[in-house]
């Protein structure tokens, strides 16, 4: 729980926040939330099923997607869950996550 408070108290810019999402407890929380809310369509390992492969998705991808896109319905998540799910997805494919973070950082410059 401690880290969630830290995230709330000290909101960091997108890039720094994403790179901080490596806490194993946060990843475990995210895996559970992913199994509850996302795996029915994206598969247990996020490799795709009724939805696409989303391994390596970063926080921005998650927050955008849960607003609903085309075939994906809007999904309501509690505070902190999008961060946890992003941490889990990033942990599944850190290389893809890193590339996405670099692209985002470049866009913001
Ligand atoms: C009812 C099925 C369904 C559920 C549940 C679902 N998704 Fe999706 N998701 C989809 C489909 C289908 C797409 C492809 C949307 C499109 O582009 O038409 C998608 C796309 C995405 C994308 C974008 C992928 C890309 O390459 O653009 C992300 C990220 C994503 N979902 C994350 C999530 C997360 C996180 C959850 C759980 C909170 C979730 N989805 C739950 C069906 C689902």
From TrEMBL:
Residue ranges annotated for the Cytochrome c domain, each copy included: 25-109
PROSITE patterns cross-referenced by the UniProt entry: CYTC (PS51007)
Keyword Secreted appears in the UniProt entry: no
Keyword Heme: yes
Signal sequence coordinates: 1-16
Alphabetized InterPro entries for the sequence: Cyt_c-like_dom (IPR009056), Cyt_c-like_dom_sf (IPR036909)
Keyword field: Heme, Iron, Metal-binding, Signal
GO molecular function: electron transfer activity; heme binding; metal ion binding
Stated name of the protein: Cytochrome c domain-containing protein
